[in-house]
C-alpha cells in the first residue's frame, strides 16, 4: 500500500503519469497506443507511465495489452490518504 500512496502523492511531479492515469480512468480498458493517440504522446512515454502505474498497482493489465484502473487499490489508497489527512488536521 505504501507504493500506491507514494505513487499517488508523486503524481503532481509526473505530469505524463497523471495524464495517462486520467486517460485510463476515462477510457479504460484501453491500450497504450490508444492512450498515446488520445493524449498526443509517444507510445514509449505512455508505456513508461503505465509501467510505473502498474508496478504500484494503481492500474492493471487485463486482456491483450489493455489496461484499466484497479479500483480496489485506488479506493484503499484514498481511504489511507484520508486517514493521514485527518491525523494531520487533528480531527
How is this fold's topology laid out?
Blueprint: H1 2-9, H2 15-27, H3 32-39, H4 43-56, E1 59-61, E2 67-69, H5 71-89
Antiparallel strand pairs: 1-2
Helix pairs in contact: 2-3, 2-4, 3-4
At a glance:
The chain has about 90 residues and is mainly alpha-helical. The protein contains five helices and two strands, in the order H-H-H-H-E-E-H. It is about 70% helix and about 5% strand.
CATH fold name: Arc Repressor Mutant, subunit A
- Major sheet strand order: 1-2
The fraction of residues in strands falls at 5-15%
Radius of gyration: 14 Å
Residues in helices, as a percent range: 55-70%
Q: What is the general shape?
A: elongated
In angstroms, what separates the terminal alpha carbons? 23 Å
How would you characterize the largest beta sheet?
2 strands, antiparallel
How many distinct helices? 5
Task: Report the order of strands and helices.
Answer: HHHHEEH
Total strand segments? 2
**Quick one: CATH superfamily?**
Winged helix-like DNA-binding domain superfamily/Winged helix DNA-binding domain
- How would you state the average pLDDT, rounded? 87
Q: What's the CATH architecture? A: Orthogonal Bundle
Number of domains: 1
Amino acid at each position: 500500500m505504501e507504493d500506491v500512496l507514494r505513487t499517488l502523492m508523486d503524481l503532481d511531479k509526473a505530469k505524463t503519469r497523471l495524464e495517462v492515469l486520467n486517460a485510463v480512468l476515462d477510457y479504460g480498458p484501453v491500450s497504450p497506443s490508444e492512450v498515446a493517440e488520445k493524449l498526443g504522446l509517444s507510445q514509449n512515454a505512455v508505456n513508461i507511465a503505465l509501467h510505473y502505474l502498474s508496478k504500484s498497482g494503481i492500474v492493471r493489465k487485463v486482456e491483450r495489452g489493455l489496461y484499466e484502473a484497479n479500483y480496489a487499490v485506488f479506493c484503499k489508497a484514498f481511504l489511507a490518504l484520508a486517514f493521514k489527512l485527518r491525523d494531520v488536521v487533528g480531527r
